[in-house]
Design brief:
Rossmann fold, ABC transporter ATP-binding protein, L-isoleucine transmembrane transporter activity, P-loop_NTPase, binds adenosine-5'-diphosphate, L-valine transmembrane transporter activity, 10 strands, binds magnesium ion, AAA+_ATPase, alpha/beta, four-stranded antiparallel beta sheet
Length: about 260
């Protein structure tokens, strides 16, 4: 097992944003985490990456307890992430942003630069290498986040709404990129509200609602699960919407 979370709870005061959530991730998985806004997806995700301290529960990476490890230590072990709101270093170039990731494993500037250029090539951003990061729009920033994470040479990559704010064409390109990353041997956890992305990419899906896991299974299983549809819409609305496919209910397919 690559990554395991056991009974994670994260409380903010008396409010439990995540309540006793567990998950296991095997090499080669693309695990999708879905759920309505405020369900606790990002909070759970941040407990996996170490950006938030868990209130209780354990996180294991390749069998090792990393619950008290900083995000940097987890990155060294091979756990990389992107942020829902891109954390771009505005004053730096695109290349320099990616080099920050590469410096995790390369102390020499020239080596880090070579690695960063190779990653930019891979994500299709080579011609933007010397552009200031601040000149990028949302799609560029989202892709740059993925590039910086890839430059750390991860075993597991966690993407938090990496496709939010993209148009249909850009989403398709991003799906292709994630497929390419997966083919290269990287295991993925994707938090995504775009159902089509989950349907096309995820091998398994876990559904959150009010901090708790309410369903897990294949993308088709969870999207046809009445409890999941009810969580997205509220029970009454789900009844009113009977006759629509689950994907339509959850935001519609990408056309
Ligand atoms: P999701 O990513 O599924 O939309 P989040 O994990 O961001 O949900 O948030 C889950 C719940 O926890 C929300 O109700 C949110 O307002 C709350 N929450 C998230 N972060 C904090 C925080 N730092 N302090 C207090 N409440 C928070
Ligand atoms: Mg979120």
């Amino acid at each position: 097992m690559l990554l395991e979370a056991r009974g994670i709870t994260k409380a903010f005061g008396s409010f439990k944003a995540v309540d006793d959530a567990s998950v296991t991730l095997e090499q080669g998985d693309i695990l999708g985490l879905i759920g309505p806004n405020g369900a606790g997806k990002s909070t759970f995700f941040n407990c996996l990456t170490g950006d938030l301290k868990t209130s209780s529960g354990r996180v294991l990476f390749e069998g090792r307890d990393i619950t008290d490890f900083t995000p940097e230590l987890r990155a060294e072990l091979g756990l990389a992430r992107t942020f829902q709101v891109p954390q771009t270093f505005e004053g730096m170039t695109v290349l320099e942003n990616v080099m920050i990731g590469a410096f995790l494993r390369s102390s020499h500037r020239a080596e880090a630069e070579t690695k960063a250029r190779a990653v930019l090539e891979r994500v299709g951003m080579s011609r933007l290498a010397d552009s200031p990061a601040r000149s990028l729009g949302t799609p560029g920033r989202k892709r740059l986040e993925i590039a910086r994470a890839l430059a750390t040479e991860p075993k597991v990559l966690l993407l938090d709404e990496a496709m939010a704010g993209l148009n249909a064409h850009e989403v398709k390109r991003a799906i292709d990129l994630v497929r390419d990353i997966h083919r290269s041997g990287i295991t993925l956890v994707i938090v995504e509200h775009i159902m089509e992305v989950i349907m096309s990419l995820a091998s398994r899906v876990m559904v959150f609602h009010q901090g708790k896991e309410i369903a897990r299974g294949s993308p088709l299983e969870v999207t046809s699960n009445p409890a999941v549809i009810a969580a997205y819409l509220g029970t009454r609305a789900a009844k009113a919407a009977a006759g629509h496919t689950p994907i339509e209910l959850m935001g519609g397919p990408i056309t």
